Amino acid sequence: MDQWFICDAGHVHWGALGGAGLLLRYVPPDGGQPRFFLQQRATSVDEGGSWGIPGGAIRAGESPEAAARREMEEEVGTVPRYRKTSVYPQPCGGGWTFYIVFADVDEMFPGYSVHETDATGWFTRTELESLPLHPGIRTFFQETDVGGSAPR
């Protein structure tokens, strides 16, 4: 449900049923560095100004992937053809979970600044180091080895 939710640990989250977002990776066929599609969150939303992935509340009857797809369409207006490789749950420790749906695309596409988005871009792991990342996506990159070394 699209509403604020306070979990058992006292954290405030958007989405009573959890949240989900879509992290897309482009791996160049020539062996170049993988690039990740990120959005800069609008200043009017939680963690505004940070770079993260399009995402939001899971609605009743939605899978994390369906929610992530819907949120991407709402926030950047484009959902390219992709191949889901995995889903990474990020539990908060209080009974609420955000799911990162990780997928590969065959080409980089232009993202648009639609609802809740100030900018979009494609970034290598090295380039991510200079961005103010959303805490959840920073944790994801620190805990996984997708596309090289983790930003600090």
Structure description:
It is globular and about 45 Å long. The protein has a single domain (4-143), classed as Nucleoside Triphosphate Pyrophosphohydrolase (Alpha-Beta Complex). The strands form 2 sheets. Strands 3, 4, 5, 6, 7, 8 and 9 form a 7-stranded mixed β-sheet that branches. Strands 1-2 form a two-stranded antiparallel sheet. Strand 7 and strand 8 (97-105) form a beta hairpin. Helices cover 17% and strands 34% of the residues. The chain has 3 helices and 9 strands. It has 152 residues and is an alpha+beta fold. The chain has helices at 64-76, 125-128, 135-143; strands at residues 4-6, 12-14, 19-26, 35-41, 51-52, 55-57, 83-91, 97-105, 117-123. The mean pLDDT is 88.
**The named CATH superfamily:** Nucleoside Triphosphate Pyrophosphohydrolase
Low-pLDDT windows of residues: none
Number of E-state strands? 9
End-to-end gap: 33 Å
Helical proportion, percent range = 10-25%
Tell me the CATH architecture. Alpha-Beta Complex
The secondary structure category is alpha+beta
| Estimated share of beta-strand residues | 25-35%
Give the domain tally: 1
What is the H/E order?
Answer: EEEEEEHEEEHH
Radius of gyration: 15 Å
